[in-house]
Structures are given as C-alpha cells and as structure tokens.
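stage 2 :: seqdesign
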C-alpha cells in the first residue's frame, strides 16, 4: 500500500506565497519522478513542476521564475514553493510520484489540496 498526502494549501492574496508539501509512505523500494499538477473545474489536469531525478527540474511556462520544486529523498517528500501568486494559480494541486514496487514502477497521486489566490 502506497499513499501520498499533501499539505499546505489555503487562501492567499495575490502576490503572496504558499509552500506545498507531499509525503509518500507505505511499502516500496524507491521513488523515480515526483512532481505537481493542478486542475481547475472543467479543465484537464496540467503539469506545474516535476523532478524526474534529484538534479532535473521542469516547470510549466506559466510558473517559471515564481515556483520552485524540491525533493527530500531521505523523507520521501516533494515540495512546491509558490511565490508571487496570481489569481490564475487558483486550482486544486495534486502531487504525484512514480514509485518502484515489486513488479515494476507505478504512478500514485495525492488527494489534492486547494489553493485559492484572491485578487
């Protein structure tokens, strides 16, 4: 059993900051990629940031220069520091992880955490 749990969503004014965290727990060998997606009502889930490895980061163009993704492999955690937030960043944010278990690697998702940016 593998579980991803997110922390840190909430309400913030435009220009403010929030930090999201996601912890992976359960029985597994290792974690490959980790990252964050977001989704708004009526839209598809979109990639925000990812770390395929501990030394590679990818960002959506809309968040480059404002968001920073990081990982703590010892704690099986991924973080998303969000600065200079805009109302259009309002969404449910989901963390994901590509986790290696017996038999192969599998994608897991957190339950989502709401971020609301007021203008």
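stage 2 :: out
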């Amino acid at each position: 059993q593998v579980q991803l749990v997110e922390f840190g969503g909430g309400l913030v004014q435009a220009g403010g900051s929030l930090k999201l965290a996601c912890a992976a727990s359960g029985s597994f060998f290792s974690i490959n990629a980790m990252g964050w997606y977001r989704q708004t009502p009526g839209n598809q889930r979109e990639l925000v940031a990812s770390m395929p490895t501990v030394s590679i980061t990818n960002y959506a163009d809309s968040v480059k220069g404002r968001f920073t993704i990081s990982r703590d492999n010892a704690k099986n955690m991924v973080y998303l520091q969000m600065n200079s937030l805009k109302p259009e960043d309002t969404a449910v944010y989901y963390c994901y992880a590509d986790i290696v278990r017996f038999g192969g690697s599998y994608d897991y998702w957190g339950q989502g955490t709401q971020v609301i940016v007021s203008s």
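stage 3 :: structure notes
- The first strand starts at residue 2 and ends at 7.
- The radius of gyration is 14 Å.
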